[in-house]
Write a structure and sequence with these properties.
Order of helices and strands: HHHHHHEHHEEEEEHEEEH
Shape: elongated
Distance between the termini: 101 Å
Helix content: 25-40%
Oligomer: single chain
Radius of gyration: 26 Å
Structural class: alpha+beta
Number of helices: 10
Length: 266
């Protein structure tokens, strides 16, 4: 087990002493030193605390030999970017194809929504989902359809389904991009994204309904991101006329009134 040596390596990268880290964690120096030297084992609660402190998953903190990790990997851990935000490692997706070897779009039904964050990578979960095909979408990209809940993203209403494209490289997401974000805690959410990966290792999630406050989600809490392509809605969106359309409509109404007046006079 590499737990003690990993703690020491990560502490040294932070340029902190055992005394300083122990103070941060509410421990005595001897207790923390025992963890690094392998003479003491932390409780499960303390293991989670150490994992959060060093911004690395608990299983990697225990099992992985960080002394053999590349500097680029360690730099990502230093920044809190434990996941592969750049998509340099292939994110494998289970997919369904039809008899013509065309990639099908899996539709996540409302009843399956709650289990998606646990089953998104499980072939047994995905293979029983309903599928459909949209021939006008690019063949070299992966799409999935997600159910929308709530009123936070008008004009997309509750009961709609968003068709979205899988995003491999999260760093490429531009500010203002509408996306389906699959998180560990909230599951499926549909929001406008602002990219703060470089500065805060997070995305800001914004609703089009201004009643809902924007909030930050750390990259390590995100499982998948899918970029909005189109949506299927049970309701016709409200039509809003711009100034030119309104002026044209008003002129047309005035012409009709004038025509009626002329007829009445004659």
């Amino acid at each position: 087990m590499n737990f003690g040596s990993n703690l020491k390596l990560l502490r040294n990268r932070l340029k902190r002493s055992q005394e300083e880290v122990a103070t941060d964690l509410g421990l005595t120096r001897s207790t923390y030193s025992g963890y690094e030297n392998g003479v003491a084992q932390p409780s499960l609660e303390m293991l989670v605390t150490l994992s959060n402190y060093y911004k690395i998953a608990a299983d990697e903190l225990i099992k992985k030999d960080l002394s053999k990790a590349k500097e680029s990997e360690l730099t990502l851990i230093d920044k809190g970017l434990q996941v592969d935000a750049k998509g340099q490692k292939l994110r494998v997706l289970t997919t369904v194809i039809n008899e013509n070897n065309e990639d099908m779009i899996e539709l996540i039904p409302e009843k399956a929504r709650a289990g998606y964050s646990a089953g998104y990578a499980d072939p047994d979960y995905l293979k029983v989902l309903p599928t459909f095909h949209l021939p006008f979408l690019a063949r070299d990209r992966k799409y999935r359809s997600f159910p929308i809940k709530g009123d936070s993203m008008p004009p997309v209403v509750e009961g709609s389904y968003v068709v979205a494209e899988f995003v491999q490289n999260w760093m490429s997401i531009r500010n203002g991009t509408p996306c389906i974000v699959v998180t560990k805690e909230e599951g499926i959410v549909f929001k406008i994204l602002h990219n703060f990966l470089e500065s805060e290792q997070s995305f800001k999630l914004i609703s089009t309904n201004t009643f809902y406050e924007p909030y930050m989600v750390h990259v390590n809490d995100i499982l998948e991101i899918w970029k909005f392509v189109n949506y299927i809605s049970p309701e016709l969106p409200e039509v809003r006329m711009d100034d030119s359309m309104l002026s044209k409509s008003l002129r047309s109404l005035q012409d009709e009134i004038q025509e009626l007046r002329t007829k009445i006079k004659s």
